[in-house]
């Protein structure tokens, strides 16, 4: 029972598909909850079950303290999901902050458990050993004034129009965002020479108007294939229904071609 509770806390699964061939595990952006990505479940066929990771400090975990560092996130996700990850193939999708969390967890699973996603889908993320990522870690957003963080999020298109005037929710989004960025600063990835961590394929998606530097660096992290797609829009291009439809179709094709 305890285990079931832990699962319920960590995972949002809007469409349960116990017979699916593969699980797509989604990791939201900084400040984000599970609502948007969990809804993807209904856009996929029966062969794919979508789990969305819910980190502490938000939604039904509102009263829990935020994660202090990347290690505690890695440990929680691994401890709760290891049995699931061993029982059937899985792929990861992460957007922005979520792309770094999914990478950190994939790295841990590979090093400690010899497990690897069949595909890593990265959205709006710099390569984790790149200048762009280091610059992001140096950004002082987690110490910035709330107004600055809010302005940054609004510029990126990260706040739904209907929430613009809800001060309580805005305050919570800003706080969550700051805490997530603080977590990012605790993640260190040193790419050793010749040490390629993954063998799975990696696909990188970006908005055409988004400033993502060093996206090509992802191809140094796997011996598998790496592909890159630009979709119309800014940092939150993936919230556009037409882009969402492209993403879900493309992800389905990649997973089905992985020959499960």
Structural class: alpha/beta
Number of domains: 1
At the fourth level of CATH, the homologous superfamily is: Alpha/Beta hydrolase fold, catalytic domain
Strand order within the widest beta sheet? 1-3-2-4-5-6-7
Following the backbone from N to C, one meets helices and strands in this order, namely: HEEHEHEHEHHHEEH
Determine the N-to-C terminus distance.
Answer: 31 Å
> What percentage of the residues does DSSP assign to strands (E)?
5-15%
Average per-residue pLDDT, rounded, comes to 91
Protein name: S-acyl fatty acid synthase thioesterase, medium chain
Domain Thioesterase: 23-252
Family: Belongs to the thioesterase family.
EC number: 3.1.2.14
Describe this structure in words.
InterPro entries: AB_hydrolase_fold, TEII, Thioesterase. It catalyses: (9Z)-octadecenoyl-[ACP] + H2O = (9Z)-octadecenoate + holo-[ACP] + H(+). Belongs to the thioesterase family. Its EC number is 3.1.2.14. GO terms for molecular function: fatty acyl-[ACP] hydrolase activity. The structure is a single chain. By secondary structure, the chain is α/β, with parallel strands linked by helices. It has a single domain, classed as Rossmann fold (3-Layer(aba) Sandwich). The chain is built from eight helices and seven strands, in the order H-E-E-H-E-H-E-H-E-H-H-H-E-E-H. Strands 1-3-2-4-5-6-7 form a seven-stranded mixed sheet, sandwiched between helices. Strand 2 (22-27), helix 2 (35-38) and strand 3 (48-53) form a beta-alpha-beta unit. Helix 1 (2-10) crosses helix 3. The longest helix has 18 residues, at 70-87. The radius of gyration is 17 Å and the shape is globular. 40% of the residues are buried. The mean pLDDT is 91.
């Amino acid at each position: 029972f305890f285990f079931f509770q832990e699962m319920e806390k960590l995972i949002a699964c809007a469409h349960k598909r116990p017979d699916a061939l593969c699980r797509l595990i989604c990791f939201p952006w900084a400040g984000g909850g599970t609502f948007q990505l969990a809804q993807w479940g209904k856009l996929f066929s029966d062969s794919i079950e979508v789990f969305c990771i819910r980190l502490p400090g938000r939604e039904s975990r509102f009263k829990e303290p935020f994660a202090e560092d990347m290690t505690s996130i890695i440990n929680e996700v691994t401890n709760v999901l290891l049995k699931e990850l061993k029982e059937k193939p899985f792929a990861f999708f992460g957007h922005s902050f979520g792309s770094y969390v999914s990478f950190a967890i994939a790295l841990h699973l590979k090093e400690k458990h010899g497990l690897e996603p069949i595909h890593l889908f990265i959205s709006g993320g710099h390569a984790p050993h790149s200048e762009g990522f280091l610059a992001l870690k140096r950004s002082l957003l987690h110490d910035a004034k709330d107004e600055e963080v809010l302005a940054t999020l609004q510029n990126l298109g990260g706040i739904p129009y209907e929430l613009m005037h809800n001060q309580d929710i805005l305050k919570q989004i800003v706080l969550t965002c700051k805490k997530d960025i603080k977590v990012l600063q605790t993640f260190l990835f040193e790419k050793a020479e010749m040490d390629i961590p993954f063998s799975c394929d990696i696909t990188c998606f970006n908005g055409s108007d988004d400033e993502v530097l060093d996206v090509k660096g992802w191809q140094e992290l796997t011996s598998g294939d790496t592909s890159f797609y630009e979709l119309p829009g800014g940092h939150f291009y993936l919230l556009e229904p037409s882009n969402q439809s492209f993403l879900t179709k493309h992800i389905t094709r990649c997973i089905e071609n992985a020959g499960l």
